Amino acid sequence: MEKQEKKYPLVVTGSFIFNDKDELFLMKSPQWKNKYICPGGKVEIGETIEQATKRETKEETNIDIKEIELLGVLEGLDVDKHLDKKYKHLIFLNNRAIVKNAKKIILNEEGTKYKWLRVSEWLVRDDLGKYTKEALDKFLGEKDEYKDMYKRALADYQNLLKQGAQEKQEFLKYANEQIVYDLIPVFDNLKLAIKHADEKAQENPWFAGVVHVTKQLEDVLSNIGLEELKAEGLKFDHNTMEALEKEETEDKKKDGFVSKIMKPGYKLKDKIINHTKVVVYEYIKK
Question: Over the stretch 133-155, which tens digit does the pLDDT of each residue have?
Fold first, then answer.
């Protein structure tokens, strides 16, 4: 009896390309029932995923891309129901990328038209390819509170930087006390968002970027002369702290010491500009 040859899934790469307006590029493809999809195609023998992603994107759109990172993997069974080719089983390697050059977009025979829209705008449309929509839902369409918090804090931070400086020298020139007052809430929100992010949030590609931006902001504030006041484990000091409430303790050694920091305090050079808001232990004899 002749042994039947085994067949294996085909590996393809897809490119979810974003511009500087945070808009996503998708193109309408006749091969995918005239639905909007991301550029992509087969990974060739001897080719890396990054090389295949760049090549397929260039061939199909004439777009050059950069900062390619893997979003995640999807599996497509019975693909031929959604594609005008006899592929039964595809493995989709979904990648996020930034547009490097999109001055002259030229679609090949695999695309008829294209659009740049925000992910939220794409997700309400009914003309997305099945696997493109799945990828958007799973990897790019999250609306959790941490992501919203990051976006608000980052937007505030970027706006304040634009107001404060066009370049480092100009920023330092105008880095006065009022600007520092405005930046501190943004910095505190970023740190709080990072601290409370769960494991799922930390796995998202944008999380590392948020951490990096927070460190950049911390460096900027430090260069201006801002310093966070120390309070953890110290005895209450009315010169640098503000007691919001007391926490009872039976340990006499803890009496008058800081139990919990509710909000950080700061000094600008030698001037206290925000007192540290704390909870203070109070010894109760029982």
Answer: 999 988 887 544 445 556 676 77
* DSSP three-state, residue 15: strand
Amino acid at 36: Y
d(Cα 89, Cα 86) in Å, to the nearest integer? Answer: 9
Helix-, strand-, coil-residue percentages of the chain, each rounded to 5: 35, 30, 30
* Rounded Cα gap, residues 205 and 37, in angstroms: 21
Q: Is 183:160 a contact under the CB 8 Å cutoff?
A: yes
Give 203-227 as a DSSP string: TSHHHHHHHHHHHHHHHHHHHHTEE
The whole-model pTM stands at: 0.49
What is the DSSP code (8-state) at residue 106? Answer: -
Q: Give per-residue pLDDT as tens, 228-244.
A: 899 888 999 989 999 99
